[in-house]
Amino acid sequence: MADKTAAGRRNGKATSEPQTAKPATKSSSSLSITDILRIVGGLFLLNCLLSYFITNDSVLWGWRPWFIRPAVLTRYFQGPVHLTDAQLVQYDGSDPSKPIYLALNGTIYDVSAGARVYGPGGSYNVFAGKDAARGFITGCFAEDSTPDMRGAEYTYVASDIPLPAEYSLDPSTAETEKVTGAVKSYRSNELRRARKQVQDTIEGWAKMFRGEGGKDYFEVGTVIRPEGWLEKEPKKALCAQAIKGRPKPRSAPAQGQAQDAGAQYRGGR
Ligand code: HEM
User: Between 20 and 30 A from 81 (CA), which of 104, 144, 182, 268?
Assistant: First the structure.
């Protein structure tokens, strides 16, 4: 008892009164993990509801990752399909028990969600059941339903640049004279730009077919082709419609005019 009193004095408190021990609980202002999860979950749910009421369609503001799309999930678990060009034809929409597929540069996409457009009688049925990548560039859907892209870039090359004989509808008009200097550089710039445009255009379509633009299409697999298939195909001339639609000349320099590569650095011209 004497010891307790001494200890009480040291603490500056009288120890004659009974000590009221505070319960060892957390302060009421701190949040538990469960509380935080509840708040985050509630906010997420609210966000989903708001998105659904505003977009009238999506609970994630139009974002549709593959793992929330049932058809894509099913395909994911089934694994990719690998079809030859001959097998791909069976998926052109004429058999209602099969999905509608189209291919672009060897990648197959399921476009069943666009049955109105790609199915029988649809405005783009011409693309169904095949790889018609070339037609996506030239716009000649019937003649160019092939994945052979050789020379398709001339669709985007300025019209003052003659077509090489192998891509020309009339090879007799093909240029035989060798070009040099500024003309050569103008042509190679045009070709480089056109090839990039082909790549970008195909990638733009591929994005749409992967469903990235909001359509319910998705990638399902690849087309199987024997090695060296392209070399065995005869080269295709650029179709008339693509020739007609080639862009206007972009101020071609005259043949023989030497390009002064240093002029832009000197100034005072
Ligand atoms: C290289 C040229 C072209 C290509 C490769 C092309 C390709 C396509 C494709 C694949 C679709 C279907 C998109 C989807 O899945 O929803 C489409 C839709 C459409 N295209 Fe084209 N197109 C071209 C040029 C044109 C032109 C010049 C016009 C108009 C004069 C046009 C009018 C349309 C229309 C109206 C639709 C909507 C069809 C529908 O929903 O029924 N297209 N195009």
Answer: 144
